[in-house]
Amino acid sequence: MEFVNRFLHGDCEEVLKHLPDNSIDLIFTSPPYADQRKNTYGGVAPNEYVDWFLPKASQFLRVLKPTGTFILNIKERVVNGERHTYVLDLIVKMREQGWLWTEEFMWHKKNSYPGKWPNRFRDNWERLIQFNKDKKFAMYQEAVMIPVGDWAKGRLANLSETDKIRDESKAGSGFGKNVSNWVGRDMVYPTNVLHMATECANRDHSATFPVELPSWFIKLFTQPGEMVLDPFMGSGTTALAAIRQGRKFLGIEINKEYVELARKRTAREQIGLPGIAEKKAAYKVAKPRSKNGAKAKP
Fold first, then answer.
1. What pLDDT does residue 34 have?
2. Could you say which residues of the chain have pLDDT below 50?
């Protein structure tokens, strides 16, 4: 597969037409938000965002394996004094397109600096929306387990009778817990809130997220050797995370300068790693080819 461990220059909607069906294990990406990155990507108006994104989502749906997962990092913006609904509208339309809205994670930016506006405070979190093609998707929860924490020392020392059975939620949510299940455990499963610092050095890109963010989802939804796609690659952070986790990657980016930046960032990581091409030719910016072998226009 000529797309393995490559950066492709072009619009992902067109580039992905050259990929085979059901070939990607995980899509992790953060597209330009509505009315953002105008100097870099031209900007997409909130009222036009859903129509702009859906054709791309259609290609994501086609290339993703039935067992695969799509994680979309996105955030609403304020328009005329209120939150615009383009993210919520996109979720509804993607469900109509055939996606399952399986889960939603929150990225808490734990080092975000303070701020205040007349009618709101600074955003300190972003959405990471999980979509799937099938209810039976691959998920490796043990790969992201965390230390149980100091709370267990006191809470688990003297268990009540209720703590020893499954206690249903009093709110009727369907969720319940058996506190005794944590006795003797050093590691536990995390919540769907991820506490991670933002990327302090922007890597010459206007919207770089920390490499730990895609790394967490790569560990959760893929195994070594599987394929990770970022269709809005930017400076290559997702590819860098994939390489460090022993996965294959494909990055697509419409800005040629960022393609070169991503190539340089990852080249150092690629050299000497098993399963990653070491020849300089593998680091060149590749262009998609049509079925007859001719190079397609980006």
1. 79
2. 200-203, 205-206, 273-298
Q: What does the angle CA 102 – CA 222 – CA 65 come to, to the nearest 5 degrees?
A: 65
What pLDDT is stored for residue 198 in this prediction?
83
* Domain extent at residue 172: 146-188
> Same domain for 150 and 75?
no
Same domain for 241 and 102, yes or no, is: yes
Last residue within a domain, chosen from 169, 188, 207: 188
Contact 218, 228 (CB under 8 A): yes
Place of tokens 């226009």: 297
**Residue 108: helix, strand or coil by DSSP?**
strand
Spatial separation of the C-alpha atoms in residues 246 and 257, rounded to whole Å: 26
Bridge partner list, 78: 83
SS3 155: helix
Q: Which helix (H) or strand (E) holds 169?
A: none
| Distances, alpha carbon 240 to alpha carbons 71, 251, 275, 289, in Å | 17, 10, 14, 25
Is residue 63 a contact partner of residue 265, using CB atoms and an 8 Å limit? Answer: no
Task: Please state, in angstroms and rounded to a whole number, the distance separating the CA atoms of residues 101 and 185.
Answer: 32
Supply the pTM of this predicted model. Answer: 0.80
Query: For 184, left (φ over 0), alpha (ψ -120 to 50), or beta?
Result: left
